[in-house]
Design goal:
Layout: E1 6-7, E2 14-15, H1 27-37, H2 49-63, H3 86-89, E3 102-107, H4 114-117, E4 123-128, H5 146-157, E5 175-180, H6 190-207, E6 209-214, H7 228-238, E7 242-246, E8 265-271, E9 281-282, E10 288-289, E11 295-296, E12 299-302, E13 306-309, H8 315-327, H9 331-344, H10 357-371, E14 378-381, H11 384-401, H12 407-417, H13 426-429, H14 436-444, E15 457-459, E16 464-470, E17 477-481, E18 491-492, E19 494-495, E20 500-506, E21 512-519, E22 523-525, E23 533-535, E24 541-546
Parallel strand pairs: 3-5, 3-6, 4-5, 6-7, 7-8, 8-12
Antiparallel strand pairs: 1-2, 8-9, 10-11, 13-14, 15-16, 16-20, 17-18, 17-21, 19-20, 21-22, 21-24, 23-24
């Protein structure tokens, strides 16, 4: 016995049921919006849940001053769901698109996807590190190794060409350098990752590379002093190149190079359940202390429900196109063309041809949700591999707003503007959830001032240690730590221009010390410029000074 199919009076789709009562935010605005676009519709007519989601999302986009979505949603099936665009879910300012910034992706492989090259070819260089003789033509064909790198680069910097602009990356105007490191045997070796990093060192000026995204890592967890990958990443940072790396997707696994390096910005994941509310949940990303005692990740970003391209020319692409073309057919058309659909979708059992149209449609919708092919061109993916490109895109926005920013200023802004998530263990989130608009706001308001030294700075000649913090609103800031028995009102910091606060203290005896800043006698904050920290026991961080 099958559920009676109904027709949504707004979109005309066949659905299992209609909504007549609503329990969503901005309910009145949603109903008003529906009536504006459908004057003949009345609330008692009912509406499908997809249409409610559609108009609700449009309202939120307008409230956030983002461009209208338009009528482009690529899925039109009875039980479909909308995958939210990255800029919307992260509340990024879409006026900043990474224009003038070059991001280098070191990944398994690449395909020159239409979202990167069709509107304007933004790929400055594509190179197979494992086979430098490979020409650009190689990357115009689909290869098994191309899936991951194509997805990460498009998540970050795709312009949404294949989705009428809907699924564009936050850095949709950035230029790209793509370095393939997976060999013909399907391996990603330390040697090839190191070769790619060395290539960036040799050519970063030529291609104006400012950011390196690494949604991969070495095979073994080692100390950063012993890792060639970490050492090369550090050399890039010294050249003022931001290096951003995914930490991995196994809570039990150790943090591996390059994510374990002190000044590499390592990214963990969170899950927003594909919703536009403030409730964020933990993702099963790797976390914890590295072999060197550094706690990673520093930041978390969305790692689930991320729209990514299906690799063109593959069996998966053919199936996705077939599924969505079939879902657009009327019942009569689908019955007539079922044999062709069954031929292309080989997983459909022969006896399905004897079933009624409701059963057949359910087969297709179940397959769409099982495969995550939410459109003919895109699927939704998960993993910190896709959280890292979101962070890289935000860094590109910041560099577009102020190209003079150095690596340490970018780190400081990202960390100090991140949102601490009380429901998530501190070790899993670092400084918290990345907030693009807050970070950009600091830069646009000229609240970021570069200094000669990061905090803390040990001056052994003068036998002093200098600490810095930037805060434009504080009336008083003090330094407290184990070196002064956490006295709260003794080491008062001196205010300077542009919201900078500074203090110098005598060099303590050799040892390890924990410390924090106390703002206006009520708020404790860690030193975001210092990569060495440990949990404070209160779901926060203590910064660590090693003498």
């Amino acid at each position: 016995m099958y559920t009676k199919i109904k027709i949504c009076p707004v979109c005309g789709d066949e659905v299992a049921g209609l909504l007549y009562r609503y329990h969503i935010d901005n309910e009145k605005l949603v109903l008003q919006r529906i009536r504006e676009h459908n004057p003949d519709w009345a609330q008692e007519d009912g509406i499908c849940s997809r249409c409610v989601d559609y108009y609700h999302t449009e309202i939120i986009m307008q409230q956030r001053m983002l461009p209208e979505i338009g009528p482009y949603f690529p899925v039109k099936s009875p039980d479909d769901f909308i995958i939210l665009p990255s800029a919307l879910r992260l509340d990024a300012d879409v006026r900043y698109t990474g224009k003038g910034v070059t991001i280098c992706f070191i990944d398994s492989g690449f395909y020159l996807h239409d979202d990167l090259v069709q509107t304007r070819n933004r790929v400055k260089k594509v190179l197979d590190i494992t086979n430098p003789s490979a020409t650009e033509e190689y990357f115009k064909k689909s290869h098994p190794s191309a899936w991951h790198g194509t997805m990460t680069s498009v998540v970050c910097a795709g312009d949404g060409y294949c989705s009428n602009g809907l699924y564009k990356g936050i850095a949709c105007d950035a230029d790209l350098v793509l370095l393939k490191v997976q060999d013909e045997n399907g391996r990603i070796t330390t040697e090839n990752i190191s070769k790619a990093l060395q290539w960036v060192l040799d050519h970063h000026v030529e291609y104006n590379i400012r950011i390196v995204n690494m949604s991969l890592g070495d095979d073994e967890a080692t100390g950063y002093h012993q890792s060639m990958v970490d050492q090369l990443a550090q050399r890039l940072i010294e050249k003022n190149i931001v290096v951003i790396a995914a930490v991995g997707n196994d809570e039990q696994a150790s943090i591996k190079p390059p994510a374990n390096a002190p000044y590499v910005i390592s990214i963990g994941g969170i899950d927003d359940l594909n919703r536009l509310d403030d409730e964020l949940f933990s993702y099963h990303s790797s976390y914890g202390a590295t072999i060197d005692g550094l706690f990673k990740p520093e930041l978390v970003a969305n790692a689930v429900w991320i729209a990514a391209p299906i690799l063109p020319g593959t069996e998966q692409a053919n199936e996705a196109e077939c599924l969505h073309r079939a879902m657009m057919l009327t019942d009569e058309e689908l019955e007539h063309q079922w044999a062709d659909v069954q031929k292309k979708c080989t997983w459909i059992l022969p006896e399905a041809s004897k079933m009624d149209i409701t059963f057949k449609r359910k087969l297709l919708t179940d397959r769409i949700q099982q495969t995550k092919y939410f459109s003919a061109k895109y699927m939704h993916v998960d993993g910190t591999s896709f959280a890292a490109p979101l962070a890289s895109a935000v860094a590109a926005q910041m560099l577009q707003a102020n190209p003079a920013l150095d690596v340490f200023s970018i780190r400081k802004v990202l960390f100090s503007t991140a949102k601490r998530l009380p429901a998530i263990q501190i070790e899993k989130q670092g400084y918290g959830y990345i907030r693009p608009r807050k970070a950009l706001f600091q830069i646009l308001n000229r609240e970021v001032f570069m200094k000669e030294h990061a905090s803390p700075y040990i001056n052994r000649n003068k036998r002093m240690v200098e600490f810095h913090i930037q805060n434009n609103c504080a009336h008083q800031i003090s330094l407290a730590g184990s070196f002064n028995y956490w006295a709260q009102d003794v080491l008062l910091m001196e205010p300077h221009a542009n919201g900078n606060w500074k203090i110098q203290i005598p060099l303590p005896p050799k040892g390890t010390y924990t410390y924090k800043f106390l703002i206006d006698d009520k708020m404790w904050v860690e030193d975001v410029e210092n990569p060495v920290r440990e949990p404070d026991g209160f779901n926060g961080w203590n910064s660590i000074l090693n003498i």
